[in-house]
């Protein structure tokens, strides 16, 4: 649990483009979150401070 559930990343015009996927089963098994940034490349600082085992990637679209 964290008091800061999200952090706004810099982008053009003050906007940010982030998708976060969560997956869980009816039995209560949860997979780690997966974060996708709208970007040509993934910056190292975007992957710092998230929950353990979180996956990170970027998408050009």
Fold topology:
Blueprint: E1 18-21, E2 34-38, E3 55-59
Parallel strand pairs: 2-3
Antiparallel strand pairs: 1-2
Description:
With 61 residues, this protein is mainly β. The chain has one domain. Helix content is 0%, strand content 23%. The chain has no helices and three strands. It has strands spanning 18-21, 34-38, 55-59. A three-stranded mixed β-sheet has the order 1-2-3, with no helix packed on it. The chain is elongated. The termini are far apart. 2% of the residues are buried. The mean pLDDT is 80.
Descriptive terms for the model:
mainly beta; elongated; 61 residues; 0% helix; three-stranded mixed beta sheet
Strand content: 15-25%
Radius of gyration: 13 Å
Instruction: Give the domain tally.
Output: 1
Q: Biggest sheet: strands, sense, closure?
A: 3 strands, mixed
- Overall geometry comes to elongated
Number of strands: 3
Which class do the helix and strand fractions yield?
mainly beta
Transmembrane segments: 16-36
Keywords: Membrane, Transmembrane, Transmembrane helix
In short:
With 61 residues, the protein is an all-beta fold. It has strands spanning 18-21, 34-38, 55-59. Keywords: Membrane, Transmembrane, Transmembrane helix.
